[in-house]
Amino acid sequence: MSLVLIGRLGRPHGVHGEMLLDGCDLTPLELHDIGRFTWQAARADDRTLVLRTARPAHTRMLLAFEGVDTRESASELTGGSLMVERDRLPDPGPGHAYHFQLIGLEVRTEDGRVLGRLADIVATGAHPIYVVRCERELLVPAVPEVVRRLDLEAGTLTVALPAGLEEAMG
Fold it and tell me: What domains are there in the chain, each with its CATH number?
């Protein structure tokens, strides 16, 4: 079974077992279609969670699971990873990819110069930021004007860096 990370469970929200989910690429409807998840944490046994509700909350998602009905029971899941079998994910569509598919891609400029590897994706209020690492770190805005081409088969992401970005990060 090939599990992939959907997101990380944050703090409880309210008193009825809702929890914040960070770093999730999926919509509430897609989460409902999946329905069943694996929760993993460093110092605990894996646990199966069945989704009760999912709704957007700013840049995050609020989730509730069957059998997790109180703030206390939700707090036991805080900090854990929400995982799903890779083949149960919906197709993200042409020209799109999940975060787990992007991490590790080689990032290069349109003229073929290698900038490094995509190490992380940081969610912001406006748009995600790609953290590209090589001998230094570049923070690349993940917007259509910058991200020009994604080739998952070749393992590359081609970008057109905004003027002055490399010098400002240097």
Answer: 3-87 (2.40.30.60), 99-169 (2.30.30.240)
Answering whether pTM is above 0.90, one says no
What whole-number distance in Å separates Cα of residue 160 and Cα of residue 72? Answer: 47
Please tell me the distance from the alpha carbon of residue 130 to that of residue 151, in angstroms, as a whole number.
16
What is the spatial distance between Cα 12 and Cα 56, in angstroms, rounded to a whole number?
15
Region 56-83: mean pLDDT is 92
Residue written as token pair 């110069």: 113
DSSP sequence for 52-68: EEEEEETTEEEEEETT-
Closest alpha carbon to 67 in 33, 37, 27, 106: 37
φ/ψ region of 72 (left if φ > 0, alpha if ψ in -120 to 50, else beta) reads: alpha
Q: What is the mean pLDDT of the chain?
A: 89
